[in-house]
Structures are given as C-alpha cells and as structure tokens.
Model the fold of this input.
Amino acid sequence: MVGPDQPRKVIHVDMDAFYASVEQRDHPELRGQPIAVGGSRERGVVAAASYEARRFGVRSAMPSVTARRKCPGLIFVKPRFDVYRSVSHQIRSIFAEYTPLIEPLSLDEAYLDVTENLKSMASATEIAEKIRARIRVETGLTASAGVSYNKFLAKMASDEDKPDGLFVITPGMGPAYVEALPVGKFHGIGPATQSKMEGLGIYTGSDLKARSLSYLQEHFGKVGPYYYWLARGIDERPVSADRVRKSIGAEATFGADIFTPEEARAVLEPLINKVWSYCESSTIRGRTATLKVKFSDFRQITRSRTIDDPVASRAILEGLVFALTEPLFPTSQGIRLLGVTVSSLEFDSAPRSGRQLLLPF
Done:
C-alpha cells in the first residue's frame, strides 16, 4: 500500500520526436535531415519535427510557411498514422510486461505506476532503463523517461534530458526542484496562466509556494488548490488505467494570425487527424464536434454540432468541423488559435473486420 513510508513510483515515458523518428527509421535517406511531418511547403501546419529541424526553431503546430522560412532545407513528409498507431501498440505491449497500471496520454507518451510491478523489481529507475532499452531494440526508436513519486514530477523529469535520456526526481529532491522551477515550465501552466501568475509576482515555484491556499483559490478558482500542492511537490493523482474521458481534443496556436478559410482548413487538417487517430485506436466515438476559436484580441468562442449517431469516420468529422468553420469568414479579426474536440463519447462495439484494435500509447 502506498503511504508516507512507501511513496508511489511513477514513470513517464515520452517517445523522442515520435512521428519524425518513425519516418527517419523507415526511410534511411531522411536520417540526419531536418524533416517536418505534415503540412507542405506552402500550406498547413507541422505535426512533428525531427531534432535536426528543431535546431532551426521548427516546432509542432507551426505553420508550414514559417517552418520553411526558419529552415530553408526542411523536408516535408506525409504522415502515416496507421504506422504510428502500430508502433505505439508495440511499445505499450512492452509496458504491459511490467505493470497493468498504464495511463496513455497520446500515441507517444504514457504514465506507468510501477510501485507494485509484475517483475517484482524494487527500483523504478531500473524498470525505466529496461523499458527504454527494450523500446530501442524492438522498435529502433529512442524514448526519454522521467521517474519520480508522482505524475507531475515524473512528467517534468522526462523533459530534463531529452532526447534519449533518463532523469530521476527522488522524494528528497522534489520540493527543492519545484521551488526552483519557473512557473512557465510547469506542465499544465500555459502562456495565459503564466502571464497571470507573473502579473501577481509569481515567477517560480518558490513564489507560488509563498502564496496561501485562500489566495490561490481567490485568483485561480478551483485549480488553486492544485497549484498550492504542486508548489510543495505534492500530486495525489493516481495513474488511472481505466480513466474515463469526457472529450478528445487537439488545438494549435499559430505564429501568424490566419484570415482565410483556406488557411483555416489547412491548419485544421492535422488537428482532425490527431483527434480521429485517438478515436480510431481507442474505439471511442463521439456525437458532438466542437470548434474552438481564439482571435488576435484573445476573444474566444466555441461552436458545436451534435449528430444522432456517433461520428463513424474521419470524413464525417472533417465535414462537421469545416461546416462549423465556414461562418467565421470573411473576417477582419485575425485568428490565433483553432481547436477541435469530440465529446458525448461512447465505446464503439462494432467489429473491425476481425483485426486487432490498436490501443493508444
């Protein structure tokens, strides 16, 4: 049983530049080259970038034209989501040999609770090392891992030594690690919340820790207590293998505002791909499609459409999203963010031609 004398042992595994790394593995001529998965030279957005491209400042969700400007030699590669799902399933099978407590976050990352594991191994660090070695041998890919006593710190640790790294934050290190962390680095704190915190004089975990619970509740509402405990290195959320999702979504903020329906459709394509990829791999379907729009003045709106039967294909989802997009144009107000969400979820029990369904990593 987990308690003060036996802290939880959590591993966060994050594949390194997953989509791009798969493409470089399968196409030797792309190895060592700056590549962008998704988009094109003239339109669309980058779904993933290789580390060679990231050195030029290319990032996921960046408009293709911006990425091309930053890296003139950038090679655009069409995504192959069936391949990514298959590799993801292969990796998750490795996880399952060590623990049944696996919480997938996406195709390329997951939390594992190895406090009581199937190998009866005492060291979570050793388990993480073995998992990373297995992934390398069996898939030809690299993964970074973070090991700690809760989900927040395990997630933070996995970012410390990328790519192909392993970082451990022990219970003795946790509080001091969080105190020294800039709030902008906190997983779950986005640019808007960071700006609000800095406006209140909160720049680091130490500053956050100095604020009372009532103060954080007053300024941040129901998430205030979460920030209060995070500042102390405490995160009681369990690794939930059977967590129930209320929605599936993806969004992107653009380096330059968009003004035309053509631009909107181009940037929505990879978001629709990402949402549908999760729906298909997890056998979850939804009846409600929602479009999130944030304008250049930070005004935000959402538009939704619900149909009688669950969305059965990517084409149907795309049609719903594009229909929600049409009334936005023409517009004189630039759009800085678009998001796609599917909700009213249920499991699809229909057989899929007898093939094994791939679960998300």
In short: The radius of gyration is 21 Å. Residues 171 and 183 are 20 Å apart (CA to CA).
